[in-house]
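Worked example

This section walks through a single chain of length 273. The input is the sequence exactly as stored; nothing has been trimmed or padded.
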Amino acid sequence: MGTSGAFGGSKTQPWQDVAELIGGAAGPAPSASQEEGGENSEQDPTTSGVAPLVAEALQSDDPSTKPRYAPAATVGDSGLSFGKLTGNARRTGTLRPGPAGGRREITSSTGKAGRALGAAFAVGTGNAALLNQYGLDLSSLRSLGRVEQILAIMDAVGVGNAGPDDIALRASLVEVLDRALDTLSTPEETMIEFVAKYATNLFSIEIDALIQNGKVDPNMREKYLIELGEVIRIDAGTLDVTGALLTTPSQFEHAAQQLMRGTLHLVATRNKR
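Given that input, the structure is written out below as tokens.
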């Protein structure tokens, strides 16, 4: 199991709930003001309800993304916890390891992405000591072209290339690593962007399978993918990640994982808050 063996078209109930919501739909019926082209004619892209269902489905795919199943804290953690991120001190996200049986390894893959971001920022800021912890050399990396730099970093953290989920992870990383290498945003901001891209690309695997099976109107594909990305950016942006310790690969890994857990929780519980 793992990202290399995952594929779209899940038959689990959470994904069936997503399919039921979006299957064959042309979108919510317009209101009278929308039909008349009034001021409110542009629909709020966050209100169809697809984002919470997708977040729940992703949590179901990998139970370790849920706080109660999250692995215990270890030495070298970033200082972030589920309780700190969400304001729910009673649920720290460090109670017990997750059960086997999920079909995806979202937490593990997100951790690899966090480590990759740490390496990219080390290149951008000239932090040779941090890069040495990855087994990478600053001078050697800087002598490479941008594509080769990104590939070297992904290889160093073990990002695979054997299946749809691996491809989703690599696609999500390419753009954010490019920005990180140029230090165009903070590590925390870049992690938020990665979380949004990765969740959206995983959703694209499922929605494409639904389209292939004739269950979803292909004209609605981009609408729902864009909506999910926007909702994730909104909710992830409410989490306080500014106090994260980000000086080692393991801290980058832990921070990214906790951000994914906290964000999926917020999105999944949108309708309950």
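What to look for: The first helix runs from residue 13 to 22.
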